[in-house]
Amino acid sequence: MEWEPVPAPRPGARLDPRVRLFLGVLIITAVMLTRTRPALIGESLLLALGLMAFGRGKIRRSSLHLIWPTVGTVFVISLLAFGLEIAADLSHRLVNLFAASVLFFQTLTPEELAVALRSMKVPYPVIFMLLTALRYVPLLGRTLRNIYDAQTARGIDVRLRLTNVPRLTALLMPLLVQAFMLAENLAMAMESRGFSRPAQSEPQRHPFTLRDLVWVVLGILAFAGLLFWERRGP
Amino acid sequence: MIHLKNAAYRYPGRHGIAPWALDRIDLDVRQGEYVVIFGPNGSGKSTLISLFNGLVPHFFGGDFSGDALVCNRLVSETPPAVLSRQVAVVLQNTDAYLFCGTVEAELLFGLERSPIPAPQFGRTIQETLSFFGIEHLRYRAPHDLSGGEKHLAAIASALCLKPPIVALDEPFAHLDAPNRGRLRQALAAVHRSGTTVIVAEHLVDDFLLDADRCLVMESGRVTFDGTPKAVLRPLKETGLVPRYPQPTEDTFPFARESLLELSNVTFRRDGRPVLDKVSFTLKAGERVAVTGPNGSGKTTLVKILGGLLKPHHGSALWCGEDIHGMPPAKRVRHIGVSFQNPNDQFFKVRVEDEVWAGPKLLEKKGIAADRDWIEHLFDLFGLRPLAKQSPYRLSEGEKKRVAVASVLAMNPQVLVLDEPTAGQDGRFRRELAELLPRIVRSRGIALVVVTHDTDFARAVCSRRLVLDQGRLVEDRSMVPTAEDA
Which residues 93-122 in chain A show a CB within 8 A of chain B? Predict the structure, then answer.
């Protein structure tokens, strides 16, 4: 099968990765600090707009499989413990938090995250561990899917149901073993490719521009404005 | 470049249990040579490759004796971090080897650790990618690439530093014919540039024509060292090039009922058809090979046959009943599927429990197991001596035997095997080629083998389906005619 070439990211077409990292962290912090329902609704609208404008491609359906049960569980537990209003607000905040995280990872690739962290002098082994985790989570997800298929093809029902709990070893055991095998292979690959050699030179990155600075200032002002508006009250 | 004298190595914790992985090896590899190392599973090929860049003994530990000199450095005293500047080793598992976010980042990873100044990185990356003809992959994520593209990206990331030696562990094992051709050309070009190329492989393919020298390993020893022309004889004698049984015509001592019927099966992923209007019928006793290039929809077809996927259009029926709609316990009595990676199946600590796992679950649902057949399977697949062992500790061939036996234990009427010979040595391939037609004849089952291995397909199957870009482009008999003879 022939693949279409992927165009090179144009330098300067997007904000500096450090700015995008900063804005992402700011948005997630804002969602966590929000107290009032109007602000939560406003955030939802802005996040939806952001996802439509900056999101790269559609959100995977498998992510939604994880999000909605989590939100549902939080809603039910907080409904029983605190009542409907608090349950609705907590679930709403959680949806916003998921949306903010999705926006963060849709606008910042793992490589750009590494660039941003390296320029902030975060030690390389820490960055590498983070990147490897990001890289291998989908890989292990694919392995889990293969194991699921292999066991189902043998007639072993491993769907996530209460009655199937005793059979989940058929999923978890091969996954655990293959995760260890993958970890060993990764360690071998890292040694083979000279991971323990310190980097002698780093590639040149594009400089921090005035536009990046404007976005940082706008982000800080919006964040401070939101907190001030919320705490001042109606 | 490489000088081994009496080099011996044993993995840690194997003292007194297992023989030496490398057993007193003497070897000299000269600059610019293209060396191919053959040998069965467990013969020490990968261990020898790991010795060249110091993973053995520094990464694995264990006992090492003798002399090993690589690019004038003593391996026992030089860590992989230093040796990897001279020797680029490309591992078999490219998913682990390519650990960065894009192909460009893979190349940058090595460049940043090299004495090459940063301003030259862009040009070096461009030159390396164009050398392998993969400039279009530069900004692609490695996990989105096909098997062949992953190997090319891995070799490019190893070679952008221009090491004098490159060693590859089974690079052709999981590739289809077009990708094998691309990789062969790439390695020949690397060799022409003066780099020493070392390839450890099971497959004997056209790439052998490019090599200068071949080694055959057995039980940790080099048993042959000679030219590519001369290697074919020892490879045949030791069964590493399998002598397959003559293809046979189907004989049917049973009723030839139609078991599976696929009619206009279409399956889409992300709006793109992975299978496009595929139709065929499978009768009892038929032995069918499904072939086609990587990404042609073979594995999707396997999943539809196994009831794991529901076609978006068309129907996949077992004796008139929708396969996907059947309860799993009923489905596995009719159709057994064994996937490519046997490790996906294993969850018991002993081989015998693994084989019995499926039948015991069926027994809980009131479906009696055929105990005589299951006991016979242990003999048929040579599993008696392995019965008490952990399936994870077996060789690759033994694992495959356990995986196929555990599917057959449920007594299915159709057996579907996805790439049963990938990564397997010639001895296992021959054993399986003898075994499968025998089971088909004695049990009256139908067999579907999805494979890139055309010789194996010819030896085992009597009919071939060819998929290309999701379409069934060929459906014909493989039984040799009098004209062929």
Answer: 109-111, 114
